[in-house]
Amino acid sequence: MGGALSVPADLLLRILWRPGEAWAVVLAAAPDWRHSLFGIAGPLALLPAITWPLGHALDPIGPGEVTLRALVASFAATFGFCVAVVVLAAAALYALAPVFEARRHWDRAMAVAAYSSVPVFLAAPLLFSATLTILVVAALFHACVLCAVGVQRLLGCRSEDAAMYVAAAGFVAGLAGLLLGGLSSAAGIL
Questions:
Q1: How many domains does the chain have?
Q2: Hey, which of 52, 83, 90, 91 would disulfide with 109, CB 3.0 to 4.6 Å?
Q3: Residue 15 lies inside a defined structural domain of this protein
Q4: In this structure, is residue 1 part of a structural domain?
């Protein structure tokens, strides 16, 4: 039975620097999807949810005067988007598992998506500066590498298929995100 994983702070650092060791800890703990989403991705999503709106508001060529209401709306939208991206990535990993002869396991797919997102979330304070935002792309590449190791360790994907699995899942999650964003915009939510 999973789900009772407490997240020591060093596990988040180990996922960055020693992913093989960290994925072994995650696999042994067998977290359920709620822990991965609300215990890892949710709290970390607060970083971009805070830094993106503040960085945008303080940008010297930005929108000018920014209201508290606009900041709160931007915070909520950024937080929701970050959590949705993790869910979409997990859903893509889950849906594509049979194509890559990996195990189809929702809890593990969510763990891979949540823990793989750690470098991007930790790089979020760079969003405070428009100049440094480009460095978040480096964190995204690191997240892809972590995801490739994660799908091998947690979902049993063959090493030769891991990169293509991650690329396909990223493509599917990206399309789903565009569709969700378009529908939300059409409905007046965003």
A1: 1
A2: 90
A3: yes
A4: no
Question: Distances in Å between the alpha carbon of 190 and those of 77, 105, 177, 182, 187?
Answer: 7, 32, 13, 9, 8
SS3 157: coil
Q: Which helix (H) or strand (E) holds 140?
A: helix 135-155
**Residue 148, in any domain of the structure:** yes
Q: At what angle do helices 19-29 and 106-116 cross, to 10 degrees?
A: 150
Structure tokens given for 24:
């072994």
Q: 0.90 cut: is pTM over it?
A: no
Residues 149, 36, 103: CA angle, nearest 5 degrees: 50
Q: Which residue has the tokens 């890559």?
A: 100
- pLDDT single digits (tens) 93-150: 999 999 999 999 999 999 999 999 999 999 988 877 777 888 888 999 999 999 999 9
